[in-house]
Design goal:
Distance between the termini: 21 Å
CATH architecture: Alpha-Beta Barrel
Number of strands: 8
Strand order of the largest sheet: 1-2-3-4-5-6-7-8
Number of domains: 1
Strand content: 15-25%
CATH superfamily: Aldolase class I
Number of helices: 13
Amino acid sequence: MRRNVIAGNWKMHGNHLEAIQMVQKLSYRLDPEDYERVDIVVAPPFTSLRSVQTVIESDHLPIRIGAQDVFWEDSGAYTGEIAPPMLQMLSVSYVITGHSERRQLFGETDEMVNRKVKAVLAHSMTPIMCVGETFEERESGATEEKVGGQVGAGIAGVAAQQVASIVIAYEPIWAIGTGRTATDDDAGAMASFVRDTVRSIAGTEAADAIRIQYGGSVNPGNIAGLMAKRDIDGALVGGASLDPDSFASIIRYWV
């Protein structure tokens, strides 16, 4: 049975002191059974990773550390970039790759996402590979072509057993930070489409094991309906993850 994973992408918010407070406040709002049912991930800015690692380890919190991006080389003259071994040393478990903001604002291509996915896997971390369509693509009926292409390019050359360990986040670009969310049925259908795409590339075993998140204005009011869909195994949460009360309610979606 697939284990659900709910990740909070804090984006460019908060300094390291605020990050410590957010993790501590989140932990106060969770019960032991919450950790048993869901992989809980927080992805703070790079400048807060060490501080978050320290509080999680010192307080023995079963919260996983995520990073918002990574470069694919282990070292070199790449000013401003962060290498996979650097994240590994900070106990990072999950790394977001190919977020639409990286693709749209910084020109990240499918090939770059693929290199990052492979680099994350090579250093025993789990990629959260983001895919999704724009509003214009959705309106023109190009959603499956766009998302299927991103999935195929992102896992190209990755062994099936490694594909099985990846998390894919379906995030319709038109829903990110807009307050608009895909309907439960639409989100569920796209998650099923993503799983079928993986099946056609990497086989049934990988498709059955891979975890698929929904992202895009996820909040306490819509999480239960989304999680009821067979092929949705969690959520990649943006703004709502900055509020410990809201994020805890999302994590405890069954309550």
